[in-house]
Amino acid sequence: MKNRFLWFSLFSLIFMVSGCAHVISKDLRNTSDTTLTLKQVLQNPSAFRGKTVIWGGEIIETSNQKDGTTQIEVFQRPLDSRGEPEETVASEGRFLINADQYLDPYNYQKGKRITVAGELIGEELKPIGGMDYKYPLLLSKQIYLWPEYYYSSYPYPYYYYNPWWFYPWWGFSFNYHYFPRHHHHH
User: What is the pLDDT of residues 107-140, one digit of tens each?
Assistant: First the structure.
């Protein structure tokens, strides 16, 4: 019996941990330079060529190239511990992702949140409002597109966080059974 309980605890533990798992594979996280920020790379993109980073943010534009690849322009946001872009934190700028596959622009549409692990392969100049903007360029190794629903930061219903919310009702139902019996003694 004890053994079974142990396995059960282990299973629930694994299950709970996986609920908050990072969206980028462990192998890629291990080979990435997670300390490298977009801000640092923007100062001199070519200096960091060959490094793998995990960045994310909101999609500005997805464009399919003639050779069957896809380029995604991203408005960067810092990531939380699961790799989810945090919308409340200020952006450090923009970067480009080159994916060596066709990604449907309808799925990867403007405003959707994305997290990518990719290798820095240099920079690309693109005009923004009349000025040339230097985009760090990532060759994607893994892309995660976040689902649309915005309550994703709260994985459980409200009462998980506030167990007391439920108890008064239980108390009420028990009392209800005991009291009425003592009435109507004429």
Answer: 999 999 999 999 999 999 988 888 988 899 999 9
Q: What is the pTM of this model?
A: 0.70
Residue 177 lies in a domain: no
Q: Which domain CATH number covers 86?
A: 2.40.50.140
Neighbours of 76 (CB within 10 A): 22
> Number of folded domains in the chain?
1
Which residues pair with residue 79 across a beta bridge?
A: 85
User: How many CB atoms are located within 10 Å of the residue 145 CB?
Assistant: 17
Q: Are 118 and 50 in contact (CB under 8 A)?
A: no
Cβ atoms within 10 Å of 25's Cβ, excluding its own:
14
Place of tokens 């629930």: 12
Alpha carbon of residue 151 to chain centroid? 12
